[in-house]
Amino acid sequence: MDTGRVRVGDGLLELFGLGPDDFDGRVESLLSLTVPEDLPSLMSVVEADHMTIGDRELEFRVLRPAGPPRWLRLRGRLVPGGEGRPARLVGSVVDASTLRSDITDVARVQRLAAALATAVTVRDVGKAVVAALRRPLRADRIALAELEGERLVVTVLDPPEPEDWPELWRAEWRTEWPDAPVRTMPTLAAALREGRAAIWPAGSPLETALAEVGPGGLAVLPLPAGNRMVGACLIGWDTPHDFGPDERALLTAAAGLAGQALMRARAFDAEHELVGMLQRQLLPRRLPRLPGAIAVARYLPSTAGLELGGDWYDVIPLPDNHVALVIGDVQGHSAGAATLMGQLRTALRAYAVEGHPPDVVVSHANRLLMDMETDLFATCCYVDVDLEQGSAWCVRAGHLPPVLRHPDGSTEIAEAEGGPPLGVVRQSDFPMSPLRLRRGTLVALTTDGLVESPESDIDEGMERFAGQLSAADPTPLGPVADALLGKAPRSDDVALLLMRYDGMASRPLRESWTVWRVPQAVGHARRFTRRTLRSWGVTADMDAALLVVSELVTNALVHTEGQVRLDITLVNDRLRLAVADASPRTPAKPTSIGWGATGGRGILLVEAVSAAWGTLPVSGGKQVWAEFVLRD
């Protein structure tokens, strides 16, 4: 093996088309006569990087001065030298066409059956059929297609290059067979109806679309499964091919195996698509637009069949230009884990919208999970971002901390103190840790499927993730997310949530007033409103704004108990007046009011003079708001 020299008999030289005087004794001289496509597999026998002690067997083609290439079979054994490494290759090369076809065909069927037993998807089935049949049969083309109603959908074309297929196929190169060629192939349609393998030697009168697939011979194999056809396999030769009885039996047996495998794979693909649809329904369909920030998310499952993952993410817009970034992972891969994930996501969103601080939101979710008495637990990371100030509070429940990429490209894994996973300890503390964001800071939240692998632990994975984030250009956020997932050695589900903080172009003006329950409370609220609006230079719609304040404050004082707060916000030309109280009951707009009624007209007045109004649940009560579009 070290010298590159070889000793061969005259019979082997004859197989290569050489005479004794034409051969110089070098291995390279024989390899130069090999068909280029077969050279890599042949080289693997003699290259040092691939050599191991043991038997070798493979088929390859050699070029001849005239006619098609000749198929040869190499059977040999690598024997060790003094140091135990391969030193010599001893074996024989024979004309593959002289071998007993019954033995080789049985072996091919057995290999195909073994490959199809592990084929999961439709594409896996196609690859197994190509590997088992194309080279052993010396075929030039193989196409595998599914039968869907009256259509054939091609799943595998080998070779995959368009130039290796006839012009008609090249012009319509895509994943599906076009309808026109299918309609012009009655021979193929007849074979599918009859359900028997059809063989056409060279020169057979066939439609152009079929004849050009195998001008030297064509085999069309309907793929049966039970009592129906699930697809077809086309095998074509460019040079005249002799279809012997043993080969016909091989093709028939292969078609039966492929049909059954294709049916199983179609069922798996349908199940997997159903799983994907259910998973997508449990996650946000789209992320909201954020003032002064942009967010993208990705989810990639790695489970099979009907198993569902428990990874999730969410982006929750909150009042006062806050947003909650949430990511989590429910233990296990099952329908129960996915169902629990959907319940937790809904609960966290509800608690957040009610106005609770981050630690209370996560504590409520923990108690909810404990009360459900499930054996599953969940991890979660919740980040409340103030988009006006560029600040955030982070709460971790057994989950990975956020990774921050700063505008200068540096990254840091946030030092956020964490609590236990949700559903483990009923009375748990979930401390809040502050985060500071600069304009251009990227906040990255992910699940352990992205950073943990059999080759590295979570700490190493987090450092690698931070390094990839540092090298990324955060301007186009979507490609960053795709690149991070593309480099991940996934053995688990992966959820990824990215938000780039750009800062708000203009910050709202805000003022608040606590309304005391005194006889002149409404008057005090009106004076505070007038003084605030004048300080902001707002004079338009002053009377309407004061009327709304009077009605909302009066309703809160009359119909609720506890503290009442008036909030005034100005964003560009939009003025928002909001009154919060301690009652969860929302005011209802009356459908009709009698002449003698002494109440119920306040909400109608608010609706009449404002551009919009509504209610929001807040921590410990509700908020009733009205908005004005200020006139110039």
Automatic annotation (TrEMBL):
EC identifiers of the protein: 3.1.3.16
Alphabetic keyword roster: ATP-binding, Hydrolase, Kinase, Magnesium, Manganese, Metal-binding, Nucleotide-binding, Phosphoprotein, Protein phosphatase, Transferase
Reactions listed under catalytic activity: O-phospho-L-seryl-[protein] + H2O = L-seryl-[protein] + phosphate
Class of this enzyme: hydrolase
Keyword Magnesium (UniProt): yes
Occurrences of domain PAC (ranges): 56-108
GO MF: ATP binding; kinase activity; metal ion binding; protein serine/threonine phosphatase activity
Parts forming coiled coils: none
Signal peptide segment: none
CDD domains in UniProt: HATPase_RsbW-like, PAS
Superkingdom classification of source: Bacteria
Purpose: Primarily acts as an independent SigF regulator that is sensitive to the osmosensory signal, mediating the cross talk of PknD with the SigF regulon. Possesses both phosphatase and kinase activities. The kinase domain functions as a classic anti-sigma factor-like kinase to phosphorylate the anti-anti-sigma factor domain at the canonical regulatory site, and the phosphatase domain antagonizes this activity.
PANTHER family per the UniProt record, alphabetical: STAGE II SPORULATION PROTEIN E, STAGE II SPORULATION PROTEIN E-RELATED
Name of this chain's protein: protein-serine/threonine phosphatase
Organism expressing this protein natively: Streptomyces griseoflavus Tu4000
Taxonomic lineage: Bacteria, Bacillati, Actinomycetota, Actinomycetes, Kitasatosporales
